[in-house]
Amino acid sequence: MDAPHVLAIPYPAQGHVIPLLELAQRLVQHGFKVTFVNSEFNHRRVMNALPDKDNVRNHVNLVSIPDGLELWEDRNDLGKLTESALEVMPGKLEELIEKINGSDNKKITCVITDGCQGWAMEVAEKMQIRLAAFYPAAAALWALGFSIPELIADGIIDSYAGTPVKSQMIQLSPAMPSMNTENFPWMCFQDENTKKILFDLNTRTLKAVKFADWLICNSSYELEPAAFSLFPNFLPIGPLLASNRLGKSMGHFWPEDSTCLEWLDQQPAQSVIYVAFGSFTVFNQIQFQELAIGLELTNRPFLWVVRPDIIEKPNDAYPRGFKERVVTRGLMVGWAPQDKVLGHPSVACFLSHCGWNSTIEGVSNGIPFLCMPYFGDQFFNQTYICDVWKVGLWFNKDESGIIRHEEIKGKVEQLLADEALKARALHLKELTAETVKEGGCSSNNFGSFIRWMKE
To answer: Coiled coil: which residue ranges (predicted)?
Structure first.
């Protein structure tokens, strides 16, 4: 039998691209042909950041379609990006599939689309191609999206833009962790129009997801038992990490600075504070400087990932004399090979924005967390880390919403002295390792998914 040909299309953000590209590489290992479709803008970034372009091209066919925005337009404006993408990308995806199916290449036999991309599900249904929806974040947040009709019926949110009727803590089921209605993913924008656009995207996806034959997600029963009990049709196949297949993580938007691994080699075991905030977090000058001073005051070695665009006004971002004072024990890099960093024996803890990729990478390496969420699902992931799994601590903010340097220093010291917390982190590492091994729940689910696509 010829190899099945899968077309994979992520939501256009790095936190969505990386896990779906990891899934694509797993499929190639099982004999599949995979065409991976990024937006043109993100495709360019991914290709520029790849250390070994030919190696990836030999395994996964990386292609692109336009997102409707000009090259210079701001793609951090998710409302504008979403509106533009919905106008342009469905037609372009349909054209791409027709082109592939009309060529000498094997026809597309299955589409795997990001669970946020209802429009791509509609294209697969229109073209009568088998469909799987892949959710790269916590299953609990997918469950929240599926619960929107009930939330409206119960008077918790309105039907116009999903705005909470009042600020409150809710549970989707008695066993589920509490959620703050103010932190629903579509609510984390100041602009009301953006909130409505993204809420509408949720509701459109909810209607389209019924076309999917499989609902798979980058999580595990062990991490989220209540979410999978509430929605048993969600099938976890994660954590999907390159380290689990002894491969390289790909799909990053910035080139990795691997020299930091050599620096880590020089540090004592379990001594380094690793600090990284993903691809989207932006700090104001005050918070950035408080973080810098807090790290300095710990008197511990630290590796800090400072993206070129991590601060609103990057000129002279660091406190005066900071770099000179920490030169012997602090290293700042533009982007790091995070999967390798978190697996390094010198790393003691992870000061993180709590994006889901970072969360499962830290958990899978048994690393305790210090949580500084910024956006979207990160606030709920903090709840998992601190309140459910109890493998991390959160920071208190002052009356102006700033986490001060004294708080940062204090929480670092508290975390590193908590042996029970560190033991729980190591136990969670063991659980997540077992689920992806042969015979584990996620491994079995993935095997069933592979067999279905080969039918």
So the answer is: none
Phi (first) and psi of residue 303, to 5 degrees: -115, 115
Q: What is the mean pLDDT of each run of 10 residues along the chain (455 residues)?
A: 88 92 93 94 90 64 90 80 88 95 85 95 96 96 94 94 93 94 87 87 92 96 96 95 80 89 97 94 92 97 93 79 94 94 97 96 97 92 97 96 96 97 97 95 96 92
Pairing of strands 33-39, 61-65: parallel
Query: Is the overall model pTM greater than 0.90, yes or no?
Result: yes
Q: Compute the chain's Rg from CA coordinates.
A: 22
Euclidean distance between the first and the last CA atom of the chain, given in angstroms as a whole number:
10
**All domains of the chain, ordered by start, with CATH?**
5-242+437-454 (3.40.50.2000), 258-417 (3.40.50.2000)
Q: How far apart are CA 131 and CA 147, in angstroms?
A: 22
Give the pLDDT of residue 75.
78
Six-digit token pair at 41?
Answer: 């803008």
**Omega before 239 within 30 of 0, i.e. cis:** yes
Measure the CA–CA gap between 239 and 236, rounded to whole angstroms.
8
| 384 Rama class: left (phi>0) / alpha (psi -120 to 50) / beta | alpha
65-69: long-range contacts (C-beta < 8 A, 24 or more apart)? 65/37, 65/39, 65/40, 65/89, 65/92, 65/93, 65/95, 65/96, 66/39, 66/40, 66/92, 67/12, 67/39, 67/40, 67/41, 69/41
> What is the strand order of the sheet 61-65 is part of?
61-65, 33-39, 5-9, 110-114, 130-135, 214-217, 234-236
